[in-house]
Specification:
This protein has 549 residues and is an alpha+beta fold. It has helices at 6-9, 12-18, 27-39, 43-54, 62-71, 74-83, 91-98, 109-120, 176-196, 198-201, 208-219, 225-238, 277-296, 335-349, 353-362, 371-386, 393-407, 413-432, 437-458, 474-481, 484-505, 533-539, and strands at residues 128-130, 136-137, 141-148, 167-172, 245-246, 258-262, 266-268, 303-306, 314-317, 322-324, 330-333. Strand 9 (314-317) and strand 10 form a beta hairpin. The longest helix is centred in the C-terminal third of the chain and has 22 residues, at 437-458.
Length: 549
Amino acid sequence: MTNVNWNALIEEDALAGVLPGEYARFARPVHDGLMIFLAGLPQDVQHEIMAAQARLAPQATIAERLGELARCSPVLHKLGQILARDQRLSPQLRTHLQKLESLSPSTPLDEIRDTLTGELGPLDALGVTLVPPAIAEASVAVVIPYQQNNATSRGQRHADGHEGADRVFKVLKPHIERRLEIELGLLQHLGEHLDERCDELGIPHLDYAESFLQVKNKLWEEVRLDNEQRHLAQAAEFFAGDPDVQIPVLLEHCTSRVTAMSRIYGGKVTDHAIVCPSQRRRLAKLVARALIARPIFADNDQALFHCDPHAGNLFFTDDNRLAILDWSLVGRLNEHERSTIARVMLAAVTLDATQITSLLTGLAERQPPDAVALAAVVRSWLRRVRHGQPPTISWLTGMLDDAVQQARLSVGSDLMLFRKSLHTLEGVLVEIGSDQCVMDEVLGIEFLRALVGEWPKRWLSLPDARAPRTRLSNIDIARTMFSGPATLVRFWAGHAVDMIEAHQQTPLPDSPDTTTVGGTAGGDPANTNTTNTAEISLLSPEVPCPSSV
């Protein structure tokens, strides 16, 4: 077999065309990463992928080719599902990636039957009758209905009005474990490559190899269906008191490669036919409450959350409930992480940069962040609060993103995956027909409910004891309530700093070469903070003086 020339298929300039303006500069690292990944696949797999590309029309766009490419690779398929609702990508690319959320089944029925027989034994002896065709196929598994003990004859109408089987098998595709093992190994190699060429590729200096290793370990759980079965049972318990959320019921005949569960009738939450704006907003609030607010304000020490909440795993059922499918990838937020989230929000209300910097540093794993860069990130995001942006969950995640990229803050894998889940859900909520503010609105309401519910017990709690849902102590709340004077000082001091920096960046009229107040010629933004640091630090405790840096 001859080597495949992937450069001829995927050009860097074409990739830049499907990335949003500010991200077009990442076309080169994305292109290089794809080249390394694809060239590392076995030769027969490369030729299969190229054959699939050849079946596309000669005038196929780069968006179509990327969509087809993701279809042929479990790892790229999962990445495509994550990005499918990302509003920053071009609409054409999102359209093709959204097809990956639930593919038309292509695994032959004989292969599905062979896998089931190999795992369970003769199906007839179990009273199991498959009801083809398969109804869904994803990156690693295929779903097919079945009947048990002739309890429901095919074609018989159920009480809920549906015909056919009310049970399904989720079955791993043949040889998928080996394929995933190869691709995940390439993913780790890609991380090492990026770490070595950050400057050359113009990307932030992050520990890509370590981050990709965390992702690799999580993705490997995709083919451990016995883990998913345990997660299904935990999810059923987690949402047991919520009548608006449906979790598939785990049934008998399960193995590490087969999951038997109840069938959910409905469609993707983004494919609803709801016309009324208020009803669309209600659905969006339900999604935000179940998948974001519920884990953050859970009573559990380790709060379960869904790591893969793309639209293909979120169904709007025929009885107007939210069904959450595919629990193979889950994460858990611990007490420390949820307490930090709540305390950062309170510190943002009081504009306390020192407290926020300390809390974010406490999230670091493996190595401490760049303290100076982290302080600068915090000051930048508090400036937004002073100018009217409320410190919501969107504000917090934006600050965390900058802290990771600019200050090399390394957080735990589960917190990183929770951030990824939030990003995926932001796009889903928009495509349901709501705005991104619904997430912040739901979290605000749920926080107030949790706080009010905890209030009677707070009278009997120790001052530093953290409440089970908000994760805030009486000391945290008291400090916020009595910080009014300090907050006012920070507010006006911060505005003074903003005015000085704005003046430094603005040249005097008719004097483009005039030196600014800070000693910077021409108002060059790159040099605006090189002088007057001592003067600024006297105005604001958020800015350290030179001797303390």
